[in-house]
Amino acid sequence: MRLGRLCGLLMGATLLTVVSTVWAQTPVFTGEIAPGFDRCMTERGETTMGEVDCYSQAYDYWDAELNRQYKAAQSYCDSLKVTGSDVDKAVAQECRASLKETQLRWIRYRDAMQTSNFFLVPDRNNQRGNIEHLRTMVYVVMTQAQLLTPPQQPQ
């Protein structure tokens, strides 16, 4: 019984170490939501439509960045084929398959979040609620783009 508990504690500590290491390497959001967002809000954010447009531009920016990071992660998986051996090829294929499955699951999460977030936003039946909903979805996509960023390849 004690051995089982000790193994469980060790596994928990190992998992905590791995997760904290990943989060320590994850880019943290600072500054404006997307390039040009602050300027857009200064110039157009006084109107509801202007604010919606600024958040839409931020969403489009992060959606494009997410696609760019996904392609970079695929390239990273391919770079794992160091020697061209069957083992290297299998590792690269497993990496790509895992990446694809992760992204497909994230898309399902994003779509579900889009639906549930609508009900969680205060004032959901007016323009302010629509803006808050859009702002939340910008953060959902931005976070995934940052998490998907592959490690730097050794030079």
TrEMBL record:
Stretch forming the signal peptide: 1-24
Protein name: DUF1311 domain-containing protein
InterPro entries registered for this protein in UniProt: LprI-like_N (IPR009739)
Gene3D superfamilies found in the cross-reference section: 1.20.1270.180
Originating organism: Candidatus Anaerobiospirillum pullicola
Keyword Chloroplast part of the UniProt annotation: no
Highest taxon of the lineage: Bacteria
Domain Lysozyme inhibitor LprI-like N-terminal: 40-114
Key words of the record: Signal
Record carries keyword Signal: yes
Segments forming a coiled coil: none
